[in-house]
Amino acid sequence: MGVYSNSKLKTFEQCKFKYKLRYIDKIIPEIEKSIEAHLGTCVHLALEWLYSTIQETGNAPELDDVITTYSKAWVKEYSDSIIITKKWMSAADYFNKGIKYLIDYYESNKPFQDNTIALEKEILVDLSDEHQLRGFIDRLVYDKEKDEYEIHDYKTSETAP
Q1: pTM confidence score
Q2: By CB distance 3.0 to 4.6 Å, which of 49, 50, 116, 133 could disulfide with 125?
Q3: Is residue 152 a contact partner of residue 141, using CB atoms and an 8 Å limit?
């Protein structure tokens, strides 16, 4: 059965040869990660930690603890092989952007009483008998007042999709 994801489909749209190399021939590029991807991963990890802590304890951690979690993820996953394409920016600039994103997010969403029911939830949608679409929901929330489920997808890019 063919399982497709948003990243696979975007790669195919960008360049069919790149798709072939990456997903059919399984050739891993030498440069695997950009600084933007690193930033997004670290912010995602910090937010996942925030909400998993709330689920486990019933209490929101302090903002400083969220930033500490982000900082530890940044250091653990950072390497000199990460590409910075915007030469006028440094890794520290990107690191500080992540802190700003987390402060803004924390301040606009506290006290975090939104009934999160799942984090990093995998979803599979059958497209046919032979094909599925695979994705991950960053955070699934049930809004009791509206009797609705909400899918939250964190973005750290400067342009909204």
Answers
A1: 0.81
A2: 133
A3: yes
